[in-house]
Design goal:
single chain, 415 residues, 7-stranded mixed sheet, 28% helix
Length: 415
């Protein structure tokens, strides 16, 4: 069956010729036919030259490019893209078959990683995270939703026996304008997950990151169940934690807290406004450091906690959820980052270290750094930048899609 064709206004093909994977609605002159939401279409110049093929959708981004080659989007296409992504993670030493503790091939040092990172893996609108033998798939576009079962089948072929479960989690990530009826659930497997087989809960719901165990809640947790993107930054924090008093704000599942504990911190306090997050943090601490009294958790608002605390800490982690998901609220978001960092600068002990982050895509590195600089100037303290942080290699940035660089971080020394 022939695909519907999208024709551009004259001279509106420049971004696609630079391999940017988004086609904006203002560049379109007309479409032959009326494609359904998520349908695959071909894109042509005004002079009828082929440019790309992709998923169409309602909104300012009218087409998400899948390929700049004139090729069919079928099972072989999905398998090829997934295999390319998996090969890269193997080369990075992230896959369980390529990253082991000691000499025991059955004891992976790491089996948590991102397999597909949207545009970074040339699959705009698709996220796949791997937790041990489970893949959590998340669609952010109608096109990827419509294709998710085909993608799941190709994924199983690529990963083989290393993959037992595929959980589809897109009910809260697809655009509301698409008016899609979506239910989260298992596309593959699901046995022994979430209490269906009580004796298997620990085996099936726990994964390993750099030798630390974490309980996963991909069914009800945020994102796909874990913030995979902070793995390298958590490892760096471990190196700074020895003999320090650590405060982990917005702790979620306690990732930074566990690394601080292993790094030899003398106390670690985890703070989150979500009772469920605090419960997961406590479970993860108990998994790795049972009966260790140096950890405490607090279910309270971050700003309230920072405002009321004394100068007890000499290492503070500020890893808030995205303050800005749209440019309309960028100003308010930057004010939030300034306030948050100003409180930390005011309260941290002399000689302290602050890990501060923004995961908002619409907040640029320059905007974030200026917000932190303003907070530093407000505090009047002497502050040095030790490291500038970013997302890890399994969250690659397509060089033609700079918007994919969303995670920004600074490690600061405060005199």
């Amino acid at each position: 069956m022939s695909l519907k064709k999208v024709y551009l206004h004259p001279k509106k093909e420049e971004s696609l010729l630079r391999f940017h994977p988004w086609l904006f609605s203002g560049a379109i002159h007309h479409i032959d036919g009326t494609p359904e939401e998520g349908e695959i279409v071909e894109i042509y110049t005004a002079s009828n030259n082929f440019l790309a093929v992709g998923h169409c959708q309602i909104g300012s981004i009218a087409v998400r490019v899948l390929s700049f080659d004139n090729e069919p989007i079928n099972h072989d296409f999905w398998k090829k893209r997934l295999q390319t992504a998996y090969n890269l993670r193997q080369q990075l030493g992230l896959t369980a078959d390529n990253c082991h503790c000691g000499l025991d091939p059955q004891s992976p040092q790491n089996n948590i990683y991102r397999l597909i990172h949207g545009e970074g893996d040339n699959l705009s609108g698709l996220i796949i995270d791997i937790y041990a033998n489970t893949a959590v798939m998340q669609a952010h576009t109608p096109g990827m939703h419509l294709a998710h079962k085909d993608i799941a089948a190709a994924l199983k072929e690529v990963m083989g026996d290393a993959l037992d479960n595929i959980y589809y989690k897109s009910a809260d990530t697809l655009p509301f304008k698409a008016d899609l009826e979506v239910e989260d659930g298992y596309v593959l497997g699901g046995q022994g997950i979430a209490g269906q087989v009580p004796n298997d809960i620990l085996l099936s719901a726990i994964a390993v990151e750099n030798g630390l165990k974490f309980k996963m809640d991909w069914e009800k947790g945020q994102k796909t169940g874990f913030f995979v993107d902070q793995r390298d930054n958590r490892s760096l924090l471990e190196k700074y934690a020895k003999d320090r008093s650590v405060l982990n704000m917005f702790c979620y599942t306690g990732g930074f807290s566990c690394y601080a504990m292993r790094g030899g911190a003398k106390l670690v306090h985890s703070v989150d406004s979500s009772g469920r997050a605090i419960a997961l943090t406590n479970e993860n601490i108990a998994l790795n450091f049972p009966n260790d009294p140096c950890h405490k958790s607090f279910d309270t608002d971050a700003f309230k906690y920072l405002d009321g605390m004394g100068d007890h800490y000499d290492l503070i982690v500020l890893d808030p959820p995205a303050f800005a998901k749209h440019k309309k609220v960028l100003h308010n978001a930057l004010q939030g980052y300034r306030k948050l960092n100003a409180l930390a600068f005011e309260k941290i002990k002399p000689g302290g270290i602050i890990f501060t982050f923004s995961c908002s895509q619409v907040v640029s590195k320059q905007d974030f750094r200026l917000a932190v600089f303003s907070a530093a100037a407000q505090s009047g303290r002497k502050i040095k930048i030790l490291h500038q942080l970013a997302q890890p290699a399994d969250h690659p940035i397509n060089i033609y899609h700079p918007e994919g660089e969303y995670l920004k971080g600074l490690i600061l020394a405060v005199e």
